[in-house]
Design goal:
This protein is mostly beta strands. Helix content is 1%, strand content 65%. The protein is built from one helix and 15 strands, in the order βββαββββββββββββ. A 15-stranded mixed barrel has the order 1-2-3-4-5-6-7-8-9-10-11-12-13-14-15. The two termini are 13 Å apart.
């Protein structure tokens, strides 16, 4: 969470790595023990260079793949990457890369003979620190690509190509109030653009496109109720995400249809307690209440189709989160399991 200073902040604000040196880190997500639901990493201090470094593997790639969404990938997984970090003083940087490929050298005519996918990301962060005030900014750019190829150009061959771009920005400000704890304000912005199209001989108007924009604002309070108990309260006045999907019309070869889904949170409230149960064990419990709306709008490009729709529904959701952190070793050498 961006409202608490913990070791997951490095993924959004790489400069915060300087606070989490010499750690081995393991996290399991979701509700299963499959390879897709966990990642591992390690943070290290390099004394000769006096910098912090980290390596994380099996990280989930959040940029969507339209080829995968349409079930056209049979042998590759575009959803994973590895990341290396380096940080010193107020600066931090990271590089990410993930790739998967498959090739059949003896495929039949017009049969699938090659699939490949890759994703590259670069991030940077900077912090400004004062006695009671800290300002942090993080930036990440991501670039993805993928393709399927066929052994031939017949009617059964439908080679596909896709590319993607995404940008994420996080700004976080802390203000310390001594025994009254710390307050923070978080602003997030994101944009993404993914397109996929058929490269079949003679194909026209085949491009599918997904574009999105997100914006969020949150206010948090971190209060030390005792030496071993931390209370976190968060108010997110607004969180906005809009995704638009464009595809060729099913009724008019020269037109395109659009579906736009807009999620608006007004507001969300989060309350959590983190307790140091033992020197090696931390327990966490939190609850979230969200109010908002979801609007789905469909526009048909064919002028002969009069079926445009716009549906808005209210949303109210409540969730309870439980977590446990296990720490082995001392301050200088730690292994964390979350």
């Amino acid at each position: 969470s961006l409202y608490v200073e913990d070791n997951t902040n490095v993924f959004f604000l790489p400069q915060t790595l300087v606070q989490w040196q010499n750690q081995a880190y393991f996290e399991m997500m979701g509700d299963s023990f499959s390879d897709d639901d966990r990642f591992v990493g390690g943070n290290f201090h390099l004394p000769r260079l006096n910098v912090e470094a980290a390596v994380y593997a099996n990280m989930p790639t959040l940029t969507p793949s339209l080829i995968e969404a349409n079930g056209a990938y049979s042998h590759v997984d575009p959803g994973k990457h590895s990341t290396i970090f380096i940080a010193k003083n107020q600066w931090g940087f990271n590089l990410s890369y993930g790739a998967d490929s498959w090739k059949h050298d003896n495929a039949a005519t017009d049969a699938l003979n090659e699939e490949s996918t890759s994703w590259f990301g670069i991030g940077a962060g900077y912090s400004i620190q004062a006695s009671k005030f800290t300002s942090e900014i993080g930036l990440r750019l991501g670039f993805g690509s993928g393709k399927t190829e066929y052994n031939g150009t017949g009617a059964a061959a439908d080679p596909l190509e896709e590319s993607s771009f995404d940008l994420d920005v996080v700004i976080r400000n802390w203000y310390s109030r001594g025994r009254h704890g710390r307050f923070n304000a978080v602003v997030t912005f994101s944009t993404e653009n993914t397109k996929a199209e058929s490269k079949a001989t003679g194909a026209t108007n085949t491009e599918n496109k997904l574009s999105g924009t997100g914006f969020g604002l949150g206010l948090g309070w971190e209060y030390p109720a005792s030496n071993n108990v931390l209370v976190i309260a968060v108010l997110e006045p607004v969180d906005y995400v809009a995704l638009k999907f464009e595809e060729p019309s099913s009724t008019d070869a020269n037109s395109r249809d659009e579906t736009t889904v807009t999620n608006l949170v007004l507001p969300a409230v989060f309350l959590a307690v983190e307790a140091k149960v033992a020197s090696w064990l931390t327990g966490r419990v939190g609850a979230t209440q969200t109010w908002g709306s979801e609007t789905t709008e469909v526009k048909f490009g064919d002028p002969n189709v009069d079926a445009n729709t716009k549906i808005t529904r209210g949303m109210s959701a409540f969730a309870i989160n439980l977590g446990v952190g296990v720490e082995f070793g001392g301050r200088r050498r730690r292994i964390l399991i979350s």
